[in-house]
Amino acid sequence: MAEADKKDAIRDIIRDFIKALIDDYKYGYKSADEVCSAWDEYRSTHKLFYMRDEDLRRVCENILPETCAAYRAAGSEAQDPDRMLNFWKGLKDCDFLLYFGRTFTEEREEYLSCGRERRDPVEYTDRFLRVEPEVERLVRLETGEGGWTGFCHTYWAVKKRILREQFGIDWQSTDDRFPGLLID
What we know:
mainly alpha; 2 domains; globular
């Protein structure tokens, strides 16, 4: 295997590791402390390659370390009620950058400045973001892992019900926002 191919493979492993950390937090398998500790250990024991991947470099050198540092510096929830919200926003920034090439914060600022929405506008609110990881955990408990044809419709229906009944948030799925669009 050529050296460049090896570095590309390592880069993909790093991306997958970070995505898995975020998912583990989102679905309740890891706490914020465990995510930060796992990242610290990974960074200290692995050589990080970002060849041709500026987004991964931003996540590894800036966003994820700064998110963990801010979480640790914030103290307890009593000292900083936005501690978990800010941690989640940082993880969403990492997730969005690795998946979409832009951070959640960049997308949110675009929506707030010019009204260009890529999802239900309620998803840009702190009220929604405060409960999003818990909602994801509850949806996963009810629906399971998913992955079958048509799963997104089951996922959206359960998510909509949980948000409305347990958190008083009216959320619109992609089906609700774009009726007639065939999605699977």
